[in-house]
Design a protein that fits this description.
The complex is a heterodimer of chains A (321) and B (329).
Chain A lengths: L3 E16 L4 E17 L3 E5 L6 H8 L7 E6 L2 E2 L5 H7 L3 E4 L13 H12 L4 H15 L15 H13 L5 E5 L7 H18 L2 E6 L2 H7 L2 E6 L2 E7 H6 L4 H9 L39 H5 L5 E4 L2 E3 L5
Helix pairs in contact in A: 3-4, 3-5, 4-5, 5-6
Chain B lengths: L2 E13 L4 E13 L3 E5 L6 H8 L7 E12 L2 E4 L7 H4 L4 E4 L3 H4 L6 H12 L4 H14 L5 H4 L9 H13 L5 E5 L7 H18 L2 E6 L2 H7 L2 E6 L2 E7 H6 L4 H11 L36 H5 L4 E5 L2 E4 L11
Parallel strand pairs in B: 3-8, 3-9, 6-7, 7-8
Antiparallel strand pairs in B: 1-2, 1-4, 4-5, 9-10, 10-12, 11-12
Helix pairs in contact in B: 5-7, 7-8
The chains are: A alpha/beta (321), B alpha/beta (329).
Chain lengths: 321, 329
């Protein structure tokens, strides 16, 4: 078994809700509520869920782009949340992020070359010659040709721009990358190009990914382990084969059945989840899925289920088991 | 007229001060009564502007350059493109549209009631109370709980799934003959998407409406449509019924798209990709528009544009592979 690179323990990120003239705090949005998981070296750990379930906030909290409220994030045994600002800045060399929207995450006034040099200038002292060399090498890896380096982001298509974002993330030789919906904004035929690139880079550079996505097909293809999130909590986690073959939590089952079938002759029987995700400001006391679950019982309303081991690494938080 | 809508040789131009570029070229299709017709393609292929042109919603610099769109209206067969102000009588009443982003398509400063009733005020002579009752009835039909209370609320108070239901209610309130849905579920989560697609299938049955479903998601097509047109760079490259599209696609682009989608999940191989990208900015290759990305391109494809030909009953394809006159060359 491979080594654990990242260990997240009881991570909580709350945002205060302020109201009135004096901005009095009247409550908290429980964006991430008591989330724990481990990521093995050179593996891909996927966070899936509907919008607003806290998957992106989890990713941002791990990198401390959003300051978590409580918990710990151990990166090779060192708690990232306890690092000073300067130590954190140095640590970021190893931990990078690929953003969702390649249209808004690149500075429109910088050329591709300058965009790619920026992380190197922040983290290393390099001569212009060394910088050039690194930029050329990385550009080649992600499939951007040399003569495109003097252009500006608006001259590229979405897929190309996402390649630039990826280049920026990997140029400082990180070991760990959080990819926040990297292919959601792209067309199908471009999506598969970028996914192949991510897989290739993982092998070449020995990267560890946290892959955040709402697209279950993509997650299934890419990930070793999965955590399904709902209302800031993990409701089911385990190896991705287990989760996709044998989903145990009613929410995971419904989520999987909602994915449209790719065959008109073989339409799936869908479990329709009623209603919407409840507000995370005052989450329900019992099971978060209670109001929408088709197998809810009385106990679900009062008591919050905890993650229980089912088999091996497969754990689920549901009173059914 | 046996079809509800017949689009004939439609061309849409991008008009600038010193040039005219044809974005949509020679698009023809028919939508049958009570049929759901799917239009699928990647972004920029022209599927949305085709739909907009049906309702004359294109604005400068886009203009319909040629073609006719016949619609079987209450007043008989009409050409929508040649209509002037009269088209307002058809918009929202006989043809209506659901837009992609429910969050931006509704006006933030009017209540839900105002926005539903607006359509009725324009098209009917009902009094205020009847209109309100009808609005309530519609909201119940699209599965909205606590409809009475919701009529007084504003769009920002509701979730995306709810707003999309309201959009559907507004679109269907005059019982249109044709509903154009432009990526109705793209901005929504999968679980909500499943709810909305089921709702649309259900309503289509009870309202006898024909639907044009525009999407980039092949899964949505498989779930809802009977007939499909695949768009690529402003042209229809393949048109057939939905089963044949998924199980016997002829055009290399269609089969490439399908392979890209279905190879997801098979971890043993790397994903199938269509190399390159869609021709951008109205740059149109001389021959087949897909030639530079096609793995089965022949010599003839480079300089001679193929035509959309019927390769078997009810199956059209725009490709030299299926054109006998292209064999020798």
């Amino acid at each position: 078994m491979s080594r654990v690179l990242l260990e997240v323990e009881n991570l909580k990120t709350y945002f205060p809700v302020k109201e009135g003239v004096f901005k009095k705090t009247t409550g908290y949005v429980h964006a991430v509520d008591d989330v724990s998981f481990k990521v093995n070296e050179q593996e891909t750990f996927a966070l899936v869920g509907e919008s607003g379930c806290g998957k992106s906030t989890t990713g941002m909290s791990i990198l401390r782009l959003i300051e978590p409220t409580a918990g710990s994030v151990l990166f090779e045994g060192q708690d990232v949340l306890k690092l000073s600002a300067e130590e954190l800045r140095k640590k970021r060399r190893d931990m990078q992020l690929i953003f969702q929207n390649p249209y808004s995450s690149l500075n429109p006034r910088m050329t591709v070359k300058r965009l790619m040099e920026e992380p190197l200038k922040t983290h290393f002292k390099m001569s212009q010659k060394e910088l050039d060399e690194q930029v050329f090498q990385t550009a080649d890896k992600v499939g951007i040709s040399k003569d495109q380096l003097e252009r500006y982001p608006h001259q590229f298509s979405g897929g190309q721009r996402q390649r630039i974002s990826i280049a920026r993330a990997i140029i400082s030789r990180p070991r760990f990358v959080v990819a926040d919906e990297p292919v959601s904004a792209l067309d199908v035929s471009i999506q598969s190009q970028i996914l192949n690139l991510l897989i290739q880079l993982q092998m070449d550079l020995k990267l560890t990914y946290i892959f955040i996505s709402h697209d279950l097909n993509v997650v299934r293809h890419l990930s070793n382990s999965v955590a399904v999130m709902y209302l800031g909590r993990i409701v089911e986690t385990g190896l991705s084969e287990e989760i996709f073959k044998n989903p145990m939590h009613p929410y995971t089952q419904a989520l999987l059945s909602a994915v449209p079938s790719k065959d008109p002759l073989n339409k799936k029987k869908r479990i329709i989840l009623q209603g919407d995700v409840p507000s995370p400001v005052n989450p329900p006391e019992g099971c978060p899925v209670f109001a929408r679950c088709n197998r809810a019982m009385d106990v679900c309303k009062q008591q919050r289920p905890v993650l229980k081991a089912m088999s091996g690494t497969h754990r689920t938080a549901c009173h059914l088991y | 007229m046996e079809n509800i809508l017949e689009v004939k040789n439609l061309g849409i131009d991008l008009v600038t001060r010193d040039s005219i570029r044809r974005l949509i070229d020679d698009v023809s299709f028919e939508v049958g009564i009570k049929q759901s017709y799917g239009i699928v393609g990647e972004s920029g292929c022209g599927k949305s502007i085709t739909a907009m042109s049906i309702m004359q919603l294109l604005s400068y610099p886009l203009k319909t350059g040629k073609g006719e769109i016949f619609f079987d209206s209450d007043a008989g067969k009409v050409d929508l493109l040649s209509m002037k102000k009269e088209i307002r009588k058809i918009r929202g009443k006989e043809i209506s549209m659901i837009f992609q982003e429910p969050m931006t398509a509704l006006d933030p400063i009017f209540t839900i009631e105002d926005q539903i009733i607006e359509t009725l005020e324009f098209h009917t002579n009902l009094n205020k109370k009847d209109m309100r009752d009808l609005a309530l009835e519609m909201l119940n039909k699209v599965g909205i709980p606590r409809a009475e209370q919701l009529l007084g609320e504003y769009p920002h108070q509701l979730s995306g799934g709810m707003l999309q239901r309201i959009m559907i209610a507004i679109a269907l309130i005059c019982r249109p003959k044709l509903l154009i849905a432009d990526e109705p579920t793209t901005a929504l989560d999968v679980t909500i998407q499943a709810q909305i697609l089921d709702l649309m299938n259900e309503l289509k049955e009870s309202f006898d409406t024909s639907i044009i479903m525009i999407t980039h998601d092949l899964g949505v097509i498989a779930e809802t449509c009977e007939k499909v047109a695949v768009f690529y760079a402003g042209q229809i490259v393949e048109e057939t019924d939905v089963v044949r599209m998924f199980h016997g696609a002829a055009h290399p682009y269609t089969s490439g798209l399908l392979r890209a989608v279905t190879s997801l999940g098979d971890k043993s191989k790397s994903l199938y990709t269509i190399p390159g990208m869609v021709p951008v900015g109205g740059y149109i290759p001389k021959g087949c528009r897909f030639e530079d990305r096609c793995d089965r391109a022949k010599k003839i494809c480079k300089n001679n544009p193929p035509e959309l030909l019927e390769i078997e009953e009810g199956h059209k394809c725009r490709c030299w592979l299926y054109n006998e006159s292209g064999d020798e060359k």
